Amino acid sequence: MAKLTLKDLDLQNRRVLVRVDFNVPLEAGRVTDNTRIRAALPTIQYLIDRGARVILMSHLGRPKGKVKEELRLDPVAKELEGLLGRPVHKVNDCIGPEVKAAAAALQPGEVLLLENLRFHPEEEKNDPEFARKLASLADLYVNDAFGAAHRAHASTEGVAHYLPAAAGFLLQKEIETLGKALADPERPFVAIIGGAKVSDKISVIRNLLTKVDTLIIGGGMANTFLRARGYSMGKSLVEEDQVPLARELMAQAERQGVKMLLPRDLVVAQEFKADAPHQVVAANAVPDGWMALDIGPETAREYANALNGARTVVWNGPMGVFEMEPFAHGTEAVARAVAAVDGMTIVGGGDSVAAVEKVGVAGKIGHISTGGGASLEFLEGKALPGVVALTEKQAEE
Questions:
Q1: How far apart are CA 347 and CA 343, in angstroms?
Q2: Stretch (H or E) spanning 302
Q3: CATH code of the domain containing 137
Q4: Which of the residues 109, 343, 366, 373 is marked catalytic?
Q5: Most buried residue among 60, 110, 180, 200 by CB atoms closer than 10 A?
Q6: Which pLDDT tens digit goes with each residue over 141-182?
């Protein structure tokens, strides 16, 4: 990376402000999935081991600039304590005299967690004065929140203007892994893009068409491409206004010699319900009044075959309505096929990550991205504000 990283910093006795992504699910005051907390542990432990005074900050949920008791970070502090095996001090705000005093009192190797950043509207507005107050707590800044790196907020972008700013291990790994896949992939390079809408992923598809050898399309967005082929799609979700664009993207793939795969068969249902009557039909034979909710078994086999021999695979988005059991099989089949690839595999997006975990193959994936929106924007070729704001290495030399 051309940016400062954790290993470029002299950390002994320094107060280090670390932006982490502790936006985790809570139930009855307990953390129900600590994946994101565990992802930050290598950076936190490295800082502790080197005698830094560690100040952690994160958002949680969408309190919209107001204090919401159920979105306080106390359960997160407790969970982190258990994972680190040491006390984690917690304050009830992220700026102000109490916070300043707690940060000043920290001893080398101690950890302090600030309160939910989004209790202040200035956080999402990237207010310079708010960013300056956060920065005043520390000597150095580390961004390890890849999941929030696509947001230009005070804690992800603003703070970096006031302190030497470096990437934590998680952020560094994400940028380097995704960066290599896009800039210098081992070939054949196959991308699998799913999800409900073409409109959400137009820029991703456009960018990937200039880089991949094969592009596999699944999920609700495939319906729009099938409509562009002239097929009747019954009651399926189709973005009619995006049909001309889908046609244009198919033509672009042909011009660039990219193989674009669309479903050959579909699992269709009479209603958007788990217990609705359903059947498998050819992609060009969706009955009137029925809707496509998953790729069919023939398509799942074809998509798995397309991954044979791939050296780089990027997957983002489910193949169907993954949360309903009858329509989860396509996504699960793709998860198994991606896990069997003998090359670099990268999985991003909540449903795709949930699928590899559900079928028990997460350990066989080369890189599971922690940032849904951030990894999507990176795949679009966009610069991420949280990364751009970090200090350039040469500027420090």
A1: 13
A2: helix 297-306
A3: 3.40.50.1260
A4: 373
A5: 60
A6: 999 999 999 999 999 999 999 999 999 999 999 999 999 998
